[in-house]
Protein 1
Amino acid sequence: MAKFDVYSQDAKVVSSVELSDSVFGIEPNQQAMYDAALCYLAGLRQGTHSTKTRHFVSGTGKKPFKQKGTGRARQGSTRATQWRHGAIAFGPHPRDYGFKMNRKVRRLALRSALSEKAQNNSLTVVENLSFDEAKTKKAVAMLKAFNFDRKTLLVADASEDYDNAFTAFRNIPNALVIDVNGLNTYDVMNADRLIFTQKAAETAGEVLA
């Protein structure tokens, strides 16, 4: 079991917690992490790009000039791709870019990302994210206490009261609060700092182990 210090919201050590080595202490699998991030980004693509084929380009179907005797290359339609205002050859059409990853590989990728953050000392465990009021200045004060000024991902458990914290951090461009059940490899990799509540860290250790 890996041992982590547990901090208060003002960055003071108040206790410690032991978390699963199989989640926060494995050798990161770079290929699995890359594939998971690629899968996540592919799923975000709208795929609404489209171009017109000869069937959809406006224009007549009449042969522009006779087949022989003009000295020009034979042409059958002004809607062909080589004509101005003609169709597009092999252009993009609406499609779904998403692809599926095996469940075991997805879990391995997430465990690898969490372990890499832990090994790089970029993972912090706090008591909770319970704010008495939804004030952005409270969120800013917390980040300043930990000296976090880059992209920060905060993870809480659904059983905790973090509604005020969610609202408070919402106005900070480089901070994001999510539920541990919505944790994904890309968000972990994209963040410079990772903050878990103690409850969320324990839940992740149990679910992903």
Note: Residues 103-119 form the longest helix (17 residues).
Protein 2
Amino acid sequence: MSVWVLLLVVASLLYYYVRRRYRYWSDRGVPQLDATMPFGNMKGVGKERSLNEMLDEAYWKFRGKSPVTGLYFLTNPILLVTDPELTKRILVKDFHHFHDRGIYVNERDDPLSGHLFSIGGERWRYLRNKLSPTFTSGKMKCMFTTICEIGDELVASFDKHIERGEPIDIKLLCQCFTCDVVGSCAFGLQCNSLQNGGSKLLEIGDKVFRQSPLRLIYSIAISAFPRLSRALHLPALPGEVSSFFMPLVRSTVEHREQNAIERADFLNLLIQLKTRGTVDADVETDEKLTLDEVAAQAFVFFFAGFETSSTTLSFALFLLASHPDVQDRCREEIVQKLTSHDGAITYDALKEMTYLDQVINETLRMYPPVGQLFRVVTEPYYLESANVTLDTGTMLIVPIDSYHHDPDLYPDPQRFDPDRFTAEAIKTRHSHAFIPFGEGPRNCIGMRFGLLEVKFGLVQVLSRLRISVDERTQVPLRLTKGSGFPEAEGGLWLNASRL
């Protein structure tokens, strides 16, 4: 009987603790969504609703009433930022209070987790300063040559479908294209995804980005309880990902170093940071990257680069196929600019295609690859607008997807309208109403490379082909609930014909 009494006491104390925990924000005068045990506000996320939909519920319930809203991931209190002006303070003006993302890192048991996107504090500053010179315009131009080599294979893949009279699974095709581009630009690997309709790297990518609801809960739990998770030696990534990627990077680095091989790619720049501590050929420092750090940065460059770019490219092609007038206007600009550059798709020609930039930005507004930003309070911070002091370690979320679909910021937000991004229209909106790559010192370091990749892909297709939506596409689109990126249920299917 005493055992049952003890269990009852423990269960009662646990219940009392959780119920108190779920009053964390209301006790501080912050409006909150009601939470339920044991998932907090995460119940059904990944199955009945997506994370963006859950955040959107909180956004619309309190937007305009409070600049922040309280949420709970499991028992972890989270603060949702519903005001773009406060977002600007967090990401830019008061960045020194919010420079970490609060993502779980365990380099001892999972070296790949120690990449620039996840790490915090001084290690983040150190790596950011080391890596920033690898994404200059000069480095982009060197990598652009590699992108061009894969461009013809992209069009050849369209040609195969045209000859067979088949609709095109445009997301898969874009994934193959960006996998080949980033694989080559990152490691000098010939992935041949376009030629073979897939590759091992694409399979591994699915392990990273297409998480089951259980895997999503696991990711949230290890981030909510990082010390306990590290004590239990829990990895951040699935074991199959690390066991594939770590030997790949090690063997490639060793092969290049032993044979004095240099290529105009990202890995070559990382090897320079490993051997000299800088990408400047005339300078050497004592602060050099380790091989594990090289592998982690190569990992995030590849997987973040290929998935975000393929998502944007596939949705841009779908939107252009759905709006022939916009497609024709893009093609007119492309033909005009290419003609002035002797018909060649050059780095400078792409820079001059301003309407195409508007199309890409409107695609990023409607379908942002990353729908939310995470930040963590690094020292106590008094939030005047909500009259609350945020404790160190408090996590905040900026709901990018909610901002991008707010009709007060973007009238008729479900309508595709690239003219929202003319220079004049941009001036009428808050500077942080559009933040697909984040903002401030911790914005996406690879933003320019990703945009270059997408823009090149669009020009390759539109300069040679006319595209339309196939009847297999379920219109209006419905996005899947479990993917970490926007993904259409039933897929995006297009038809193509030669000009």
Note: Strands lie at 68-73, 76-81, 168-169, 373-376, 381-383, 388-390, 395-398, 465-469, 493-498.
